[in-house]
Amino acid sequence: MNIALVAHDKKKDNIVKFSVKYKSILKNHNLFATGTTGTRIHDVTGLEITRYLSGPLGGDQQIGSLIAYEKLDLVIFLRDPLTSQPHEPDVQALLRLCDVHKLPVATNITTAEILLLSMNKNPDWKAIKAEY
Question: Which residue positions are annotated as catalytic (predicted)?
Answer without folding.
Answer: 60 (proton donor/acceptor)
